[in-house]
Structures are given as structure tokens and as C-alpha cells.
Amino acid sequence: MDRIRIVGGAKLNGTIPISGAKNAALPLMIAGLLSEETLILDNVPRLADVAQLQRILGNHGVDIMSAGKRPGAREYQGQTLHISAADIIDTTAPYELVSRMRASFWVIAPLLARMHEARVSLPGGCAIGTRPVDLLIMALEKLGAEITIDGGYVIAKAPGGLKGATIEFPKVTVSGTHVAVMAATLARGTTVITNAACEPEILDVADCLNKMGARILGAGTPRIVVEGVVKLNGARHTVLPDRIETGTYAMAVTMTGGDVQLAGARPELLQSALDVLTQAGAVVAVNNEGIRVTRNGAGIRPVKVSTAPFPGFPTDLQAQLMALMACAGGASRITETIFENRFMHVQELARFGARISLDGETATIDGIARLRGAPVMATDLRASVSLVIAGLAAEGETMVNRVYHLDRGFERLEEKLSACGASIERISD
Ligand code: UD1
Q1: Is the pLDDT of residue 11 over 50?
Q2: Tens digit of pLDDT for each residue in 128-181?
Q3: Are 145 and 108 in contact (CB under 8 A)?
Q4: Pocket residues for ligand 1 (CB within 6 Å)?
Q5: Ligand 1: which of 272, 338, 341 to mutate, most ligand atoms within 8 Å of CB?
Q6: Which of 50, 173, 245, 306 to probe ligand 1 with, by most ligand atoms within 8 A of CB?
Q7: Of 118, 121, 125, 271, which has the highest C-beta tally within 10 A?
Q8: Is the pLDDT assigned to residue 126 strictly greater than 60?
Q9: How confident is the model at residue 102 (pLDDT cuts 50, 70, 90)?
Q10: Domain ranges of the chain
């Protein structure tokens, strides 16, 4: 399995192009199942999760064509996918495919809405807590589906089609909101979703669905109203930039020092994280090209942060912030409120010499002047990249083992970082 070798200490200077958001690309691809006509998605990142979802959709009979670069396309532009679900030949999403990526479970919503039946394996994905699907099932039941669980599969049926309903989520859930919105687009009547997730990716998917002829109001707010339609059309949509990739590189440059332009980044997608970085001593400037992050000379200041649903500080940047705070001039506190057990990076960061103690859902980090490179192991997607950030700032060599999680969510990571002066290479065994 591939490893990444880093020799730390270099400041990052240059430009990093930000890719399309993984967490929007996946549900957008899944939304392609809702229409017989072709959905064209631009700026889709080249990631292992995207390739895996292509296999899953292929199994349902979806044709996916990946178009090459067009004249005038930016060097780093993502791929264009043409997704055609003219005929759905199979409404089962098997264990072998779904167990590797949690978001693939979401195919249950369009399959049920369009085909009135679906049989989908319970999901896998990153090992960050139990991550149940009870709220997704609750939403589909409210819309009239009959659901049973048998042999590790969720079997959903709605013989007469789904019916609009009121869905009140007892907690904010991104997956639940995606599933409820997608399913409601083809339900008869009106669906009102309250306590909906407000993440930008929800809005991006709703924008695309509306281009396909759906009637969704209020996406991006806690109350979404969906007026069901009989069918959806084809459309063309550009995936929004990845706010987690943006925040990750912003934290990397804050940690190493230097001056990096995050090209194509949109500040409003991660204002809370940018505010935290400013508190920590980075200079964050917004310009026409994206976001420029600089730290020259000033030390890293400790912060106190709790993760929260959007627009709060994202849980997907928690591990990266912890790496950064390992070198702050004082004690920081980071509280994880979204996922239990999302602290697997703590023991790996300790290998760099980081001083972190855990008390329930709160980590206290006593910053030290300099981390030292070490062999470490990647455990989940965002935890993996926190180890890369730590390695970039640490003295000496770091070997990040088992990097397949990184390839699930970060496009051309080594290339983007080495273009900014980092000493980082992939070693394929
Ligand atoms: C999505 C993101 C993930 C991010 C997370 C929170 C994608 C592909 N993944 O994951 O990167 O970290 O949002 O911003 O977009 N829950 C239940 N029952 C359910 C569903 C969720 O209890 O049926 C709980 C989860 O265990 C968790 C919380 O709700 O504690 C939030 O989960 P959710 O927002 O659904 O996360 P995901 O959509 O899985």
C-alpha cells in the first residue's frame, strides 16, 4: 500500500488550485439517478470515492462518460461527467460496493423515488463513530416507504410512489437532509423538512435539482420545502469548490508559515474556519482569485473551538486544527460535538511529540515549539491529512503509512504541496 514521505520544515509558498467538493460531487452524481435524461457535472474531483461511486451507479445501469479536457480548460480543472440513467436495470446496491463508502447508501432515495423500490446494503465509510442511518430511514418512512432490514440490507418499497410529508429531524444531519430532499423531488405533493442541514453542499445539490426541474425552496436554511414533480430532466451543473480542502491547505500554511494563494476557493463556504485561523495568527485575505493565507514571523496563537453544523466550525477540519494547535504558544481546547470517537488522530499526533489530553469530547492541546517527524498511520480521511500537515511542519522525516484514505478525499495532494515548496513524495510498494 502506498506511503507518503515528507521532510518537514519548508515554508509553503505559491498557488494551490482548489478542486470541486467531494461532499457535493457524490450526492450530485447520485441525483443523476432521478432522471432518464443526462446530467452533466463539471469540476468533479478525481478521487477514489468518485471512482467507487461510478462503479456503484454502473451496477444500477447508469452510463457514465468522463469527458477529456476541453480547449481553454484550466490546467487543474476537474473532470466532466455525463451521467445517463435512462434505464435502471437493478435496484440493489450490494454490500461489496456500498460497504466501502458511506455516501453510496444515499442511492436509496432516488431509487425509491423513481423505481418505487430499493435494496441497499447498510453502509461503511470512515471509522468515526457509529454513524447510523436511522434518521434517513425515518425520513423515507415519513414519505410513505415501507422499510425492512434483512441480512444487512435495507429494503425499501413504495408501491404507489412516495407522498409528500413533514419531516422534522431531531438532530441536524447532512445525509438525512440529502436523502429527504432527493426523495421528495418525485413525491406526490409537498414536503416540508425542518431542522435541515444548512451545509453549502445541500444548497449546491438543490440548485442542481432545480435545474433538473425540481421545485425546492429554502435549501441552505433549516426549513426546506419541496413541491414534488412527476419527472426530472437533464441539466448541466458545476460542482462548488471544496471548503474542506481549502481549510486544510489554509491550516497547512498557517502551520509551516509562508504565503499561499488558494485559487478558486470561496471564503463564504468556510468563514468560521477562516476566523479561527485569523485568531491563530494567520493573515487571511480575500481576492478575485480566491483566498490568500499568510503567516510570516508571528507565532501560532492557541484557540478554543467547538465543531458545529454549518455555519459553525466543521468537524471535517477538526483533526487538521488539532495538528496546527500542537505548535501553538499555549494551551488550546477543541470540542467535537458532531461525531463521537473522532479523535483517532490524537495518538498518531502524539508520535510527533504533540501533547494532547482527552476528556470526553474535549481535547486539550499544550502547544510545543517544534514537532519531530515520525512514522505514523492514517486512520480516516481527515485524520490522515492532519498527519500530513503535522509532517510538513515537523523537523525531519515523516512517513505516513496506509494513505488510501487520503486518495478518497484529496486530489493530487503531493503534487499540490510540492508545487509550493514542500518536500513530499509518494512511495508505491
Ligand atoms: C457528512 C459528510 C462528512 C461530515 C458530516 C458532518 C458527506 C459525504 N459526508 O457526513 O464529511 O463530517 O456530514 O458535517 O457529505 N446521525 C444519526 N442518524 C442518522 C444519520 C446521522 O444519528 O441516520 C448522526 C451521525 O452519527 C452524526 C450526526 O448525525 O453524529 C451527523 O451526521 P451527518 O450530518 O448525517 O453526517 P454524514 O452525512 O454521514
Answers
A1: yes
A2: 445 689 999 999 999 999 999 998 899 999 999 999 999 999 999 999 999 999
A3: no
A4: 23, 26, 102-103, 129, 131-136, 171, 173-176, 197, 315-316, 338-339
A5: 338
A6: 173
A7: 118
A8: no
A9: confident
A10: 3-16+242-427, 24-238
Identify the H or E element spanning 279: helix 271-280
Q: What are φ and ψ of residue 283, in 5° steps? A: -105, 120
Residue 208 a catalytic site member: no
Q: Helix/strand/coil (H, E, C) string of 180-236? A: HHHHHHCCECEEEEECCCCCHHHHHHHHHHHHCCCEEECCCCCEEEEECCCCECCEE
Whether 3-16+242-427 shares its CATH topology with 24-238 is answered: yes
Please give the Cα distance from 294 to 152 (Å, whole number): 49
What is the fold of 24-238?
A: UDP-n-acetylglucosamine1-carboxyvinyl-transferase; Chain (3.65.10)
Q: Catalytic pick from 126, 198, 208, 327? A: 126
Q: How far is the CA of 180 from the centre of ligand 1 (A)?
A: 14
CA of 374 to the centre of ligand 1 (A): 32
